[in-house]
Amino acid sequence: MISQSALSVIRETLPVVGASIGEITPIFYRRMFTARPDLERDLFNRGNQAQGEQQKALAGAIAAYATLLVSDDAPNIDAMMSRISNKHASLGITEDQYAIVYEHLFAAIAEVLGDAATPEVVDAWSEVYWDMADALIRAENSLYSRFEVAPGDVWRQLVVTSRTQESPTTISLELAREDGAALPEARPGQYLSIQVTLPDGAQQIRQYSLTCASNRASWSVTIKAEPGRADFGVPAGEVSNFIHDNIFENDTLRCSLPYGDLVVEESEDPLLLVSAGIGCTPIIGALNHLVQAEATRPVTVLHADQSMASHAHRREMAELVKQLPGAQMHHWYEQLGSRAVTETIHEGFIDLGEVSVNPNAQVYLCGPPPFMNAVRRGLAGLDVPADNVHFEVFGPDTWTAAAEPVPA
Predict the structure, then answer these.
(1) Which one of 179, 186, 212, 223 is most buried, counting C-beta atoms within 10 A?
(2) pLDDT higher than threshold 70 for residue 326
(3) Which positions are annotated as active-site residues?
(4) What tens digit of pLDDT does each residue of 352-378 get?
(5) Which cofactor does it need (predicted)?
(6) pTM for the whole thing?
């Protein structure tokens, strides 16, 4: 519990710290990686670091948490905390690592704020940090306990039993235990962390959604090779391209236990599953689960992609929808080529006005942030409550989508 005196200081200094946090976090990471280069090499995503995305994520999380503490009308950040704790659990984060972050973060705060970082200010923000850290540690320990493992003991060696080309840039891998024993139970919409050793010795980690995990004999993930955009300063995906070039049948991968909170809950409510590009992967996982459970609830699937050729799992998605009674599916493609528009295949960007959306539907949404913001605006215009909309962000989340109103 944060003291009232600390809350008063936070309320007074939040504008200053909030304005400086974008400057604080790069200094924090530079300090921490200088002292602990192993963390940058083997834990943090080097691609996100190079683009500054991880810094934005940390800044957004701290600002959202502090705002919640001092504002009566602050947004609820339960979703943010759940998403962070699940991500941390999939990485095997342990309690002692929060002290490492604290040391270098508060050194960066002192460097940026200078004389304004009085003992009173530092003590107040320390209370905020440890209040947030304690909440995350409790949540992460609870996630570890679900699998009856010690904190951080999430890594398992799995063998690739099959590799399938799903589109020109995506492959799916089927993973199983080397001894053939049953895998832990995974929930529809969850993901695995996968760690690979790159040519320079770095052990980089990425998360991939489970597309199928219903029988516990094997798990399936789909991985898109990210080519990068040098003209936009976006590096090629280190891990995705390494896996595409090097991982085949009978190879092994170091994988985490399944985590993630974009989980389709059991209900009779209508279900609306919306995705774009590789965001279809948790949706495929949900559809596989619904078919396995012989679900009868109304299901509508909407997917947007660049073209039919680039649409990973296109045939599988269609076949799964056919197995659900009364389910329907619509596609939007930016490029249709010579194909004609039909009642269910549309050209251009997704348009909710072209389909019937039940305002009581539970919505599960995954794709690039601009796509998700556009869909959320459309859903708000159709009177779908914001609490009914659940979404997954691939890569670092700056928390703007979770902590701000629906974009206008």
Answers:
(1) 223
(2) yes
(3) 98, 140
(4) 999 999 999 999 999 988 899 999 999
(5) heme b
(6) 0.91
